[in-house]
Design brief:
This protein is of the alpha/beta class and 454 residues long. The protein has 2 domains: 217 residues, D-Maltodextrin-Binding Protein, domain 2 (3-Layer(aba) Sandwich); 182 residues, D-Maltodextrin-Binding Protein, domain 2 (3-Layer(aba) Sandwich). It is built from 18 helices and 14 strands. Strands 1, 2, 3, 6, 13 and 14 form a 6-stranded mixed beta sheet that branches. It has a 4-stranded mixed beta sheet with strand order 8-9-7-10. Strand 11 and strand 12 form a beta hairpin. The longest helix has 20 residues. The protein starts with 10 loop residues before the first helix and ends with a helix. 49% of the residues are buried.
Length: 454
């Protein structure tokens, strides 16, 4: 096996990881006991953003989809000699993953890979409870926002023992950094996802470059009883482009809460004004956003790659980067999410599990997923493929990555989603003021964190 320190690593990877490669695979630590707050009430359940890919609508099953059945048939194989991977993919993403698994099984019949689909809503809780008892998967696919919790509690295995310079060099720097935590690498990325701007080409000749241009679409769309833009405006994930475009934050450079700031208040006020002036619908959720776009009552939509499956046949559309916030001159910047394949600390055969992980994140697999599922893959060499490079939608989402904010991986972020959504909904509806609402959110999250830290 290649010594991970035998080759010099790039400065970017070192900066992201603070690299400290162990000489042997880490021994799975015993799971940390759950720490309950000393005083009720317990922290509110975190409402995390629906990660990209989870909203994919089931499509007509074609020949490729039949591969899913082939993989499922492996359930009868000897579990001790196989690798189990949990995922929550649907539709084209599921089929593309199944295609990679089928290739692995054809090449390694003695080390079968079994894919197990788990509903996303129950995914994190199932992993957290199953892995410490040795009943979970060997590998699983999940966004980076839970890496901190799982690394701290010994649920996942650090990978730098197996990752040499060539493997790390497959991926963009931001994708590697998303999988890093406390000086270790905890996964290899399979997809990077963010919000961008969809626009109907029959309603908008050119996508708006600024928020002023976006607002200027409203009077014409009002004549159609429609809106200039539709997006999940009461979710922090959907609101993030405005928050960061106005210069707001969730956490500061030291990782401390920085929720209640004048910049964040200005972003909330902007979101409220979009509704008050008829530029955007009130309290928009995924189904409403899709319906408005499909019916020609939303000229643009702010959403991620998963929205493509919601667009009705025959609707003319393209994707562009989000507009610049006219008030600040800063680009609207959504959260950057990265999905990675992570290894359980209780994986039965870690060398084989890593071999599978390595195979599914290779350039070959990335190109396959980009073509079949239009995933925005983090493998930089995948974009040298002619078919991938010529895909205008993939190119637009890749261009958006330059103006994104990585989603934090620590426990503080998970405490923010629910109270922020509640406050944002009240402000957008005109029932509360931004400044006071943000102060209340920061106090609430501070209280939750104090309970967790006791």
């Amino acid at each position: 096996m290649t010594d991970p320190d035998s080759n010099a690593r790039t400065r970017a990877v070192r900066a992201a990881l603070g690299w400290r490669a162990p000489t042997t695979p880490a021994t799975p630590p015993a799971p940390a006991p759950a720490v309950e707050p000393a005083t009720p009430p317990a922290p509110a359940p975190a409402v995390e953003p629906e990660p990209p890919g989870r909203k994919t609508r089931a499509r007509t099953r074609g020949p490729l989809a039949m591969l899913v059945a082939l993989i499922a048939g492996l359930a009868g194989c000897d579990r001790a000699q196989g690798t189990v991977l949990w995922h929550a993919y649907n539709g084209a993403e599921r089929d593309a993953l199944a295609a990679g698994a089928a290739r692995w099984n054809a090449e390694h019949p003695d080390k079968p890979l079994e894919l197990v689909s788990v509903p996303y809503g129950a995914f994190a809780d199932k992993l957290t409870s199953a892995i410490p008892g040795g009943n979970g998967p060997d590998l699983f696919i999940y966004p980076q926002d839970r890496i901190g919790d799982w690394a701290d509690s010994g649920v996942i295995e650090p990978l730098e023992f197996w990752v040499n310079d060539a493997r790390a060099g497959r991926f963009s720097n931001e994708a590697v950094e998303a999988m890093a935590y406390k000086g270790s690498l905890w996964g290899l990325p399979v997809a990077v996802k963010s919000i961008a701007l969809y626009y109907r080409t029959d309603l908008v000749a050119q996508p708006p470059k600024t928020t002023d241009e976006l607002v200027e679409l409203a009077p014409r769309m009002a004549q159609k009883h429609g809106y200039a833009v539709a997006y999940a405006n009461v979710d922090l994930y959907g609101h993030a482009p405005w928050l960061f475009g106005f210069g707001g934050k969730i956490l500061d450079e030291r990782g401390d809460l920085a929720i209640a700031t004048p910049e964040a208040a200005a972003a909330m006020a902007f979101a409220r004004d979009l509704v008050a002036k008829g530029v955007a619908p009130d309290h928009a959720e995924g189904p409403l956003v899709a319906t408005l776009f499909n019916e020609g009552k939303a000229a643009t939509v702010m959403s991620g790659p998963w929205f493509q499956s919601d667009i009705a046949a025959g609707v003319p559309w393209k994707v562009a980067v989000l507009p610049t916030v006219s008030a600040t001159g800063k680009p609207a910047s959504p959260f950057l999410g990265a999905e990675g394949i992570l290894m359980s600390a209780r994986a039965r055969d870690k060398d084989t599990a890593f071999a599978v992980l390595d195979y599914l994140t290779s350039d070959t697999s990335a190109i396959e997923r980009a073509k079949l599922a239009r995933q925005v893959v983090p493998n930089t060499r995948a974009y040298a493929d002619a078919a991938v490079a010529s895909d205008a939608t993939l190119r637009a989402f890749r261009d958006q990555l330059a103006n994104t904010v990585p989603m934090p991986k620590g426990p503080a972020m998970r405490m923010v989603w629910t109270p922020y959504k509640t406050a944002l909904g009240e402000v957008v509806a005109g029932r509360a003021e931004p400044g006071a609402s943000l102060l209340a959110v920061e106090r609430e999250v501070t209280g939750y964190l104090a309970g967790v830290k006791r």
